[in-house]
Design goal:
Keywords: Isomerase. The chain is α/β, with parallel strands linked by helices and 259 residues long. The chain has helices at residues 20-26, 42-52, 80-97, 115-135, 158-168, 179-185, 189-196, 221-231; strands at 3-7, 31-33, 55-60, 101-103, 139-142, 173-178, 200-205, 236-239. The protein has 8 helices and 8 strands, in the order βαβαβαβαβαβααβαβ. The structure holds the ligand O=C(O)[C@@H](O)C(=O)CO and magnesium ion (MG).
Length: 259
């Protein structure tokens, strides 16, 4: 049976962040993920997860100045030190929380940028991040993101992520396969999951259009969950969707999988 993680940056957002861990547990989730923990101390994050009895399975490294529109640093020339500083910070939080993986966002392509240079910086940075993470027994994941939600994002397609991983050659560098982004950019979901399965470290879901609960759009999630199970994917699927109403009221889709 697929294993699901509640995304605490998008679900239960009518509660303060640290209270969302307990709401996720009460809704039947054993695991959670979120974008960033950095407004809290590692002890606060770890304490909230332990008190709720949920595992933390993913969060992002420091993405630059999110409020100013930055969306990651991994491919940005001139920001290498800052990127690695953010990776080290994420590793400290992940180690405290027992979280097995961190997500390094590529970043936006600056106006007139040299994409080839960005590709080299991306690979160099990811090699260093993967080495730092390996020393702490963690994986690093990279996520192709659709160009509609984040115009100008550097990494958009599954095959590009696979090529970067092949070039870097670090066994702990993997794909964060977000089904919603893949559907918008490329579709062919079941085939793409099967083709890339050995490289996939984490998955995420939302329906399309709207990025709401499974069952609100065009993606046949019951079929895909069956495929993911049949293929033997043993990682987590993060529920990274915007609930249409109250989070709990939109969890009918989750009933067959609830622990
Ligand atoms: O899909 C997303 O948007 C996220 O997984 C993320 O990490 C960056 O926004
Ligand atoms: Mg995602």
């Amino acid at each position: 049976m697929p294993k699901f993680a509640a995304n605490l940056s998008m679900m239960f957002t009518d509660s303060p962040f640290l209270d969302r861990f307990a709401r996720a547990a009460a809704a039947g989730f054993d695991a959670v993920e979120f974008l960033f923990p950095y407004d809290y101390t590692p002890a606060e994050i770890t304490g909230a997860a332990r008190a709720a009895g949920v595992k933390v399975v993913l969060f992002n490294t420091v993405p630059g100045d999110w409020a100013k529109g930055e969306r990651g640093l991994a491919a940005l020339p001139g920001r290498e030190e800052e990127f690695l500083e953010g990776v080290r910070k994420a590793i400290d939080y992940a180690t405290a929380a027992g979280c097995p993986r961190i997500h390094a966002m590529a970043g936006l392509v600056p106006e007139g940028a040299d994409r080839a240079l960005m590709g080299r910086v991306y690979r160099d940075n990811l090699a260093k991040a993967a080495a730092l993470a390996a020393a702490a027994s963690l994986d690093v994941v990279i996520e192709p993101i659709n160009t509609r939600d984040i115009p100008g994002f550097f990494l958009n397609r599954t095959e590009e992520a696979a090529a970067v991983i092949a070039d870097v050659g670090a066994p702990n560098l993997k794909i964060q396969f977000d089904i919603y982004h893949r559907q918008i950019m490329q579709g062919d979901l079941a085939r793409a999951i099967a083709d890339h399965l050995p490289l996939i470290g984490h998955m995420q879901l939302a329906d399309n259009p709207g990025r709401h609960e499974p069952g609100t759009g065009e993606i046949n999630y019951p079929f895909l969950f069956g495929e993911i199970d049949r293929l033997g994917f043993d990682g987590f699927i993060g529920c990274e969707y915007k609930p249409k109403g109250e989070t709990e009221a939109g969890l009918d889709w989750f009933a067959p999988y609830r622990s």
